[in-house]
Batch of 4 targets.
Target 1
Amino acid sequence: MGNSPIGADTRTSRPATGLTNMRCVLIVVCLALCLVPAQAAERTFTVKGTVTAPLADGTITVAHEPIPDYMPAMTMPFNVAPEAMAAAARLRAGDQVEFRWRVTKDSSHAWDFKRIGRDETHAPPPAGPPVAARRVREGDTIPSFALTDQEGNALTEAALRGKATLLTFIFTRCPVPEFCPRMSERFQSLQRQLTAGQIHAVVPVQLLSVTIDPEFDTPAVLREYGRRYGADPNTWHFATGSPAEIESLRRSFAVFAEKSAAILDHTLATVLIGPDLRVAAIWRGNRWKEEDVAASLARLDSANGRATASE
């Protein structure tokens, strides 16, 4: 493919084998999530908690009690099974509920909702302050940034020039399969297809995962995370930075993250950036597929071809 690493020499890092706006949550101060044992192919739990936001876009948000042997108490959205939509739609913020939750490697869904009480003191969290950063849209040039890659090297927007870059936002301790893990699995699949020549592009293509949890996701943590997904440092890069720099970049792409006490809650976006540093496509949430990227790369190639022919 002719791809080369972002930034400085990465020979010290070797690829490893292995391993909608929907919202992803994590109690970032809880080290226990890092110690959760390997999950079986499928697990089912009984969950109790209080609804904090009613059914919307197929999910219901619940402040749940600890789920033994899986995760501590937190507030998070649950995907609702199709057969449970009617029951979930009757629930309102403040309803205390019990339900079943099935988790597999790739997905999760909740069903069998029962209203067991009412928390009259409950109120949804207040809305955060308005976002001041300029929102980048398709056709816009990406903002300048100063990050650090998984090898500790400086990384700026200049490293993206001349290549097609697929950028997404993740954090390494995300526990729910449909959110950050799914984004990383999609990037893993894209890397495999690019290496095998199944996705064709006129310009080199690279992948870039930027953490939204820079206080935990150091370069060393990101490097190990990449190894778990078999990231080739010549194709797939990871980046962190100061909290202010990360906040500015994610807000530019309308990726919102909020900390309430110990909870980190964020939205998802994946961005295709052209070799001229302009945004070619933006996908919100987790529903995009590898073929969507391939089609956008083909359109990008076509545009580059026309530009080259006109020069």
Target 2
Amino acid sequence: MAKRGGGFIGQDGINAPDPATGVTGTAGDEQVDVSFTSPSDVGGAAVTEYRVTDSTGAHSATGSASPITVTGLTNGTSYTFNVWAINPFGWSAPSGASSGVTPEQLQRGLFGGGRQSPTNTISYVTIPTAGNAIDFGDLSNLSYSLAACSSATRGVFGGGYYNTATIEYVTIATTGDSTDFGDLTAGRDYLAACSSSTRGVFAGDSTIDYITIASTGNATDFGDLNVTAFGLTGCSSPTRGLYSGGSPLTNTIQYITIASTGNALDFGDLSVALMRAGSCSSSTRGLVAGGTTSSGEINNIQYVTIASKGNALDFGDLTVARRDLAACSSSTRGVFGGGFSTTATIDYVAIASTGNASDFGDLAQAQRELAACSSAHGGLS
């Protein structure tokens, strides 16, 4: 019989189970997976259920075996957890508490499409770590020179060659193939996208469209670019979107206020006229990397402070000079993947600093003219 010294008042403490042991937690996005070792002495009957409760008492979950997922937690807050074993005679005493566990926003970057033998492949990386990209699923069609944007939960891919208007989406925390979202106001390729936590904005040629990321449906007219261009690149803070470079070859940086509508305005200039670069951001700083100039492909990374206006400053260099790359980011790290001359290289930088990029890993295959987005980019916080 159980040796833990009795259950709660009003229960058969002798026949109730011993507590679970070895309680640990694995952080997720607004959740923690709580693992434990079941008691060897279950009392007078088999354990029918385990109950997990956090240190505040506000969140609990039940299950028949380890691990048990506790949801509804606040990212950035530390929690400890206790486990109770339950059989028909009653509850065990609580287990020893786990160490503190802090849920955090999923920091996953997606790379989709590409032109090295046109592909519909989507792959993903975990931005705070380093390593090779992993298969996620497929877009509905072979696609390249497309654009991507995202909320914390959903990635959206739009446009592409040959002048398609298709928009499709995936749920970033899972894996699987894309689902139809709707259409852009006009089919186009070599476009760029940026997003806040709720709205995605696609721009190319002269047209700017927007969508509400959490819904589905066709895009709505937002306004026009200040300088007509394709092959430009986009990034954002929570309030402001930037579009940089493009063809006809330009050094222009343009900006929009994402929550409104209207034409783009002049922000400043890149250090050199370029097109087909990659761009990503924290909530305060935007980066533009690589691209091609009148002299050929470059490895330079430039940066701006998004809340202000002004010309770009030198940040450092990519590990490989290239154009037609894609970029995604967390709130602290920028990740650049693929590019022409066709490469599988993935680089990363710490956005708040300056300096040359470091090797992150590789895409599953060399790829160019792909698109990227993430669940933790600067437009979210």
Target 3
Amino acid sequence: MAKIKKQYIVSVPDYTLMNVENPNHRREFHRAMHYVQHELMPKQLSKATVLYAKNHEDYDHKLINVLSDCWVAVAGKYAHMVNQGGVLPEDIQAGLDRHMDELTIRATAVKAEKDAIAKVDETKKNSGPVLTVQDRMRMQAEELGAVFDSWLDDLMIGKVKSVTKEMDPGKHMTLANFKAGQARWVRSFYEPELELVQEVIAGKDKQLVEGYNNVAKSSLLRVARLLDKIITATTMIETVSKAQRKTRKKKAPSTAKLVANVKYCARHDEAGVASVSPAGIIGAQEVWVYNTKTRKLGRYLAQDSAGLTIKGTTIKDFSGSSVAKNLRKPKAQLKDFMSSGKVKLRKFLDEIKAVDVKMNGRLNKDVVILKVVK
């Protein structure tokens, strides 16, 4: 038998009881906060923030009005109480003042950006429609971003209870023939969102947590998972795009010939990795590879300063200290590996508890070329 959720009706508080003379001042504040959080919509809270700014000469209400509801909703909870005649506790009022100052700074930046866009639009209107390559790439990214936004909205409101197989940003970007340029725009849209959601989940910023108190933590975790999936897909698109760029013959005509017959795994979605160009192996001091079939992560070290080279489909001139180790949790370990710098890479294999296996130099369709160090 399905459980029936209980419905609660929150009564409208008497804001006049929120005054410093009242010994139950803070209790009345919490009672009012409970009402505001459960009964007022973001649009109402946004209007409350603008009205609060209008009633205080320190703030420009027209400037605050340029911000979207999601940015001003938190301040709106406190602003609504003040607008209704309530007096906030001293520490809460100080927090509201700081938040209003932050909103003013953000609104100034948003207005400047809008003014700049408006100026550009006016120029385009007078001179005719002229779109740059970046404009076109951003428009393409925004068009696909609308699809991703619908997924995120469904997860946020709980309409969808899991990140489904259909929510495959990598597949959608590939079908849209996205290259590195469009992928960078997509990442720029969603990296700030992921940081914001992670802050809410961490729960360190109380005001931020209050702003999302109507969203279940399970929904936030699913949203974070999809955002991370989107950003990972953009990184893979960039890596694949770079790997598929044609080698400039006038700069290194011999390199193209050396790698002409090389076979490798361009991308491996299950492990979340993609290959760099095999051309980078020529002259490299260090090359990292991952065998998707045997789940082994290996490192080739050059035997001298001349670096590594390739003959046919085999890496040559590597030292006997070139070894590989089996990965127990490939996806997690490779994600850690791809985010590691040169210093961490020096001890990466040593920290894996597995038996060393000598490298044979052979490249094939199961091998992903992860990193090349010159």
Target 4
Amino acid sequence: MKFLGGIATLVLVTGMIAGAQVASHSPTNAQDIEKPAARVNGVVLTQRDLLTQMVEMFPYSAQHGGFPKDMEPQIRRGAMDMIIFNELAYQEAKRRGMTVAPARVTSTATKFRKRFPDAQTYKQYLQLEANGSPKVMRAKIERALLIEDFLNKEVSKKARLTPAQLRKYYDNNGQKFERKETYHIQSISVIPPEGANGEALKQARRKAEDAAKQAKAAKNYEEFGLLAEKISEDDFRVNMGDHKPVGFEQLPPEIVKIAKAMKPGDVSDLVQLGSAYTIVRLVAHAPAGKIPFAEAKPKLEKELQKEKTEQVRAALGKTLRASAKIEKL
């Protein structure tokens, strides 16, 4: 739980309340927003807490004029579970005697204050969120930081993967890292008008030959791509001429034959495909086989880390709920 990200969401919530820009089942005024949403070991969590979490989970709510009706029940359930989990985490951190250094609270409060454009805007926010009390706002900041510290200790650190664990997963799941041969190319194509003949075909050929000269002079992906956007007449021109990595079976045989003889960065001579004149730049060629561990590691680590974090977090939530008294109101 990153304080500056989460607490800043309250600015959006305040605006939504003021403009009643929330779905029909959400509170739309200051009176409703302070009503209880749940009790956790006797501690009341309000509709404001719930709405804040809902906005954090669906940050596009302001642009959508609220939460989509078909998604709101799911967002609400997830938000309710999250605010209960955070309150249980806070209570457990307090029970263990965990604290946050005053200097860190002050530093975080200062950073948060700087997110506002001027003193008046912050004063209005403080009035809405903390009854105008800097002391109350400081307590909110301290609570958020304490939850963050607790979750770092009980989730982030315990879910951390070692290099040996990543390597073991890679070695034991070799089939997941097999890939087909792929080619990644950029192209520039000049396409004569339908039914063109005579001088029109000659003009198209001259344009293509000039494009080929410029393409050969391109030093990198960006230069070739900008040229494609300027000159090319095929559908790939809007994306730097980039076809993205594809299997050889998805490319014309003539292009595959040429690409096989190229090195990454090479630009082909002019190739005629049907009526079109095409120039190809090879971005990369990946032969069929097992993806090397070093190449697979970043994505693998991200996926496994997310999976393990969710498992550790779920287990912690189950433990915290075991002896808690929770009422959803």
